[in-house]
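Translate structure to sequence.
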């Protein structure tokens, strides 16, 4: 049994402050072993960073980030003076050998993204793979994640979820991608640009049916906002009034036995471009677990209607 504090003073902020300072000092004093450290950083609120992450960034030999100007704000906030170098999709092939050499020389290297957990819709997985192949340690320093933050406040099922990243910017490609996701038996999580949110929500409603959803923006920031409702309602709200700030869209999973005509059409349209009417109908029927006759009738209608 743990010992209870003997008086109220020991429960108050001074005792907490002392304990936090002691733990922060302990973390900062720990030597950082050579290896690649994947460090999660705040998605908005600068206080959303772990003591271990601060210590890792402070003690690393070098920190690689997507944008040095952006990440310098975070490091300056905590008086961290570790060297910053860029690592992003445009220079990754050039920087990767340099990082591998630094690790081979016994250095400690931290990798961060602009916000949240690195490698989630960010460059980096090739670096991790190369490090593992060369026998270097890869250590995760967990922390904030926009996708998980949005999922926890959406009010939708969390027992199974599928992170789908950013949808394609063009409508045809976006609808094709959504047709592939229509039957996934899990809550779907997307990142989206605010200027495309209305169009994306409309395509989600058309392709997946009018499922319950949530649009979360500016998570952890001063103007954090979460709108919940059916996809069609959210599409109308943001059609002419795009949300401001970073956006995460969370969509409920399909209801058992409920497959809308829109979901079937969303799968059929791309299938008919590459398969015969019979093969497309069979494939879609098996994917969505619906009667083949229903799908075949819709396929005939689509064929007669022709391309839009």
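Result:
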């Amino acid at each position: 049994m743990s010992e209870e504090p003997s008086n109220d003073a020991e429960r108050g902020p001074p005792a907490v402050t002392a304990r936090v300072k002691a733990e922060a000092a302990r973390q900062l004093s720990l030597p950082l072993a050579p290896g690649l450290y994947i460090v999660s950083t705040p998605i908005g609120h600068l206080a959303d960073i772990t003591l271990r992450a601060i210590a890792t960034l402070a003690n690393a030999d070098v920190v690689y980030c997507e944008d040095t100007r952006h990440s310098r704000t975070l490091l300056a906030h905590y008086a961290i003076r570790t060297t910053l170098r860029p690592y992003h999709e445009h220079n990754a092939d050039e920087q990767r050998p340099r990082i591998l050499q630094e690790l081979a020389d016994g250095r400690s290297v931290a990798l961060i993204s602009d916000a949240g957990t690195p490698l989630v819709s960010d460059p980096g997985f090739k670096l991790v793979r190369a490090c593992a192949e060369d026998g270097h340690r890869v250590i995760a320093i967990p922390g904030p994640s926009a996708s998980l933050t949005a999922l926890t406040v959406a009010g939708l099922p969390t027992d199974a979820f599928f992170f789908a990243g950013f949808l394609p910017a063009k409508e045809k490609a976006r609808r094709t991608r959504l047709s592939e996701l229509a039957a996934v038996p899990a809550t779907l999580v997307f990142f989206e640009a605010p200027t495309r949110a209305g169009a994306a929500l409309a395509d989600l409603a058309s392709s997946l049916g009018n499922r319950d959803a949530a649009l979360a923006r500016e998570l952890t920031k001063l103007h954090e906002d979460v709108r919940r409702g059916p996809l069609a309602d959210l599409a109308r709200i943001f059609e002419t009034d795009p949300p401001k700030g970073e956006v995460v869209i969370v969509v409920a999973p399909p209801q058992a036995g409920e497959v809308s005509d829109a979901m079937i059409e969303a799968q059929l349209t791309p299938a008919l471009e590459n398969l015969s009417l019979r093969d497309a109908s069979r494939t879609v029927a098996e994917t969505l677990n619906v009667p083949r006759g229903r799908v075949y009738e819709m396929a005939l209608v689509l064929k007669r209607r022709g391309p839009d």
